[in-house]
Amino acid sequence: MEIAIKHPRFQGKKLSVSTRTIFKNPSLLIDGIEQKKMKGLKKRYLLEDDNGSPAIVEIKSVIDPIPTIVIDGEKIPLAPPMAWYEYVLLCLPFLLIFIGGAIGGFVGLVGAMINASIIRGQGSVIARYGYALLVTIICYLVFFVIASVIASMFSYLK
Predict the structure, then answer these.
(1) What sign does the dihedral 115-117-119-124 (CA atoms) show?
(2) Angle 31-34-35 (CA atoms, 0-180°, nearest 5)?
(3) Fewer CB under 10 Å: which end of the chain, C or N?
(4) Which DSSP helix (H) or strand (E) runs through 42?
């Protein structure tokens, strides 16, 4: 998904950001063309504004698929911040790391990223929260199936 960024220094250019997906970090686009990041700095871009002046644009995003943009120190939120209970709901699958180590952490991380997309998605609040809980349950089931298969493989080898 691409979100337009409105800023007075970039009125003549279409500045936008592509949101995070499971396999891709957010990236910055000008007129639909993905921009190159600054060397050594992963989420910073050096862009020219409408007047040709340099502007440092930074993408701040941890697990929320919709990032916050910072242009020369000025924060530009693209969406309202998630509430604390949405973060709790989002991270419920990630609790698998305490039960299942690396496998639980991987399944939980994938589930948390899917939940983040669902919570930030379209639809009624009840439907989004319900789908996020469903994803959490599915993550736990997938983990227990994987753990059972691995445990049975090791018991078969003995």
Answers:
(1) negative
(2) 100
(3) C
(4) none
Indicate the residue type of 59.
I
Per-residue pLDDT of the chain (158 residues), as tens digits, is: 788 888 888 888 888 888 877 677 788 888 888 888 887 767 788 888 888 888 888 888 777 888 888 988 889 888 888 899 999 999 999 999 998 889 999 999 999 989 998 998 889 999 999 999 999 999 999 999 999 999 898 887 76
CA distance 136 to 115: 8
- What is the distance between the alpha carbons of residues 24 and 19, in angstroms, rounded to a whole number? 8
**CA-to-CA distance for 11 and 68, rounded, in angstroms?**
19
**Which neighbouring-strand residues pair with 158?**
none
What is d(CA 93, CA 60) in angstroms, rounded to the nearest whole number? 23
d(CA 82, CA 8): 26
Cα separation, 30 vs 100, in Å, equals 43
